[in-house]
Amino acid sequence: YGERILALYAEMEREIANISGNNKEFINVGASYTAGNYFLPSSIITFKELHENVHIRLDIGHSPDIINAIKERSLDLGVVEGDYYLDKDLDAYKVQSNELVIISPPNNRWFDSRVVTLEELMQAPFIAREAESSIRHFVESYLKTQGISFDDFNIITEISNFEAIKEAVMRNKGISLVPLPVVQREIQEGHLIRLEVKGLQLAWDMRVVVRANETLTGIKEEFLQFLTDPNTMWKAESDYNQNQKMRFI
C-alpha cells in the first residue's frame, strides 16, 4: 500500500504541475565529496540535456550525512563511497570502483625509490583527510585488519579538500592517499608521482543509494536508471582529460 500511495502522490504532483503550467520536475541528489566534485556534474548535465524540464539539485557532504538525508527524505537518492553505512533501510547499486593511490612530489625528501614499504610510508609526513570522511574510515578499517593503527602514521595535518591536499603535496609538504581520478592529470603532467607500496592495493566502491522498499517514480526513476545503467560511462571531472572515460564496473 505504501508504494501505491507514493505512486499516487507523484502522479498528483505531475497533474498539479500540468494544470499550473509548470512542468518543471525536481530531483534532490546528495553525494560524497569525491563523487560530487569529480564524477556527478557531467552525469547531471548529460541527463539534463536529455530532459530539459528537469531541475537537479546536488548537495555535497560526508557520506553519513548524505545517507541520513536520504532516510529523512530530504534527498531522493545519493552517490557515496564505501559501505560501512549501508543497512536494511537502503538499497545500493555499485557503479564504479576507484583505486586509491599514495602520492608524493617528484623530488620528495623521504624516499629514494618509487616502491616503498608500509613501514617506510609510516615515517614520512602524511597529509590525511579529516576523521569524518569516508575515505579516512575506509583506510582505518583496512589498517586494523593488518594490525596497524592510523595513529601510527606521521600525520602532520588533516585537510577536508582534495584540491588543497594536492597543492600541499606538490609543495613538498608531505605525502597523501587519494582516489586515482583525483590526481591523474597531475601524475600525467609530472607534478605528482605515484608511490607503489609493497603489499598494499586499495580500491573503494562508488554506489548509488536509495531508500529500500520504496519505488522511485517518474523522472526520479529515470535518473536512477540512468546512473545505474551499465552503458552509462562515468567520467572524472578533474580537468586532466575531459575525453577520457572511466571504465564502468
Could you give a short account of the major beta sheet? 8 strands, mixed
Strand content: 25-35%
Proportion of residues in helical segments: 25-40%
Distance between the termini: 35 Å
The CATH architecture assignment of the largest domain turns out to be 3-Layer(aba) Sandwich
CATH superfamily annotation of the largest domain = Periplasmic binding protein-like II
Overall geometry? elongated
Which structural class should the secondary elements be placed in? alpha/beta
Query: How many strand elements?
Result: 10
Topology of this protein?
Elements: H1 2-20, E1 25-31, H2 33-38, H3 40-50, E2 54-60, H4 63-71, E3 77-81, E4 90-104, E5 115-116, H5 118-123, E6 125-128, H6 134-145, E7 154-158, H7 162-170, E8 176-179, H8 180-188, E9 193-197, E10 202-211, H9 218-228
Parallel strand pairs: 1-2, 1-3, 5-9, 6-7
Antiparallel strand pairs: 3-10, 4-8, 4-9, 4-10
Could you explain how this protein is built, in words?
There is one protein chain. Helix content is 37%, strand content 26%. The chain has 249 residues and is α/β, with parallel strands linked by helices. The chain has 2 domains: 2-97 and 205-228, Periplasmic binding protein-like II (D-Maltodextrin-Binding Protein, domain 2, 3-Layer(aba) Sandwich), CATH 3.40.190; 98-203, Periplasmic binding protein-like II (D-Maltodextrin-Binding Protein, domain 2), CATH 3.40.190.10. Strands 1, 2, 3, 4, 5, 8, 9 and 10 form an 8-stranded mixed β-sheet that branches. Strands 6-7 form a two-stranded parallel sheet. The longest helix is centred in the first third of the chain and has 19 residues, at 2-20. It is elongated.
